[in-house]
Amino acid sequence: VQLQASGGGLVQAGGSLRLSCAVSGLTFSSYTVGWFRQAPGKEREFVAAISRIGGSTYYADSVNGRFTISRDNAKNTAFLQMNSLKPEDTAVYYCAAGPSTAQRMSMGYGMDYWGEGTQVTVSS
Question: Among residues 61, 58, 68, which one has the least CA distance to residue 105?
């Protein structure tokens, strides 16, 4: 199983980035997908999760209204559209997949597979 996150970079505050998570080695449509992030000196935290067919989404309060998670099951890829970025969004972003629900993933459970992270840096 491989999860490959991409799309990170350096952006000014107020800007946008779109992260992608390409998944292989499993039946993508059978797995919930989530995004997590870890800033320097901090623990990894939940950002967003989407259910198997995209009917349910969950967001951390800190990103709700600015970030949008989506998925394309035909392309085995999940996305995180990040708008109105703030310096405090600076972190390494990771995608994860698991067989549980998006709600449980939002509580920190059920992440069976992790990808390598992609760095997002927001300058002020």
Answer: 58
